[in-house]
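Sample intake sheet
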Amino acid sequence: MPERTTATTMPEATDAAAATAALELADWRRQVAELYGEVRRLASRDPRAAWERWRTARERLYREHPQSPVAAAERGGFRARHFPYDPGLRFELPLLPADGRRPEDRADAGPDRRRSPVPGPGPLRLPTSAAPVEPLAFDRVGWLAVPFPAGTRRLALFRLRDYAGGLFLPVGDATNGAATYGAGRYVLDTAKGADLGGDAAAGTLVVDFNFAFQPSCAFDPRWACPLAPAENRLDLPIEAGERLA
């Protein structure tokens, strides 16, 4: 997750504490990347088993790891909550171009695809959960047309402009503010290892909403998280993935 702690809420650390925190963070990211590697291998045979492994491993990390986004005082009793697994919310989707053309203008477009703004020049500044933090710069690299049972909706796929350059898919939906975090959830964040796979040669990505997860700021306001912009806020509920209530 491209998230940062806010400068106003973190005490100054000694050199030794900072070094320890850096190593712990590297270990957190390593374990997350290894988990998603396991998820991709399992999902090629049994997506539900991959999801079961993902949710139990993430709960353990959130409860036990020193870099957990959950506040330290709450980790011991932390239990993850999830919607039931829905095989109909797993897709492998082609990435439609972000070259100024609207997806509905393409030959393969259907009448139920919603209109969204044509990409403009320069980086995008996604909204963040902590106003004092400078928003991260992203590019919109394309569109994903998702064939939900209620009709096709499209989502923008972003690329982080900073060092890692990862792909980022934040999503808002009608469960936000009730069952899930009010500002949305993440489905992909490849810079931090949250990568469900795809086929680069075919130009596709795996998008499985059963793996939608809360950003760190949902657990503790000391985290500053980029949030789903208006173009990625859906008019339907996605009852899959992590939930808060």
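Comment: DSSP finds two helices and 13 strands in the chain. The longest strand covers residues 137-148.
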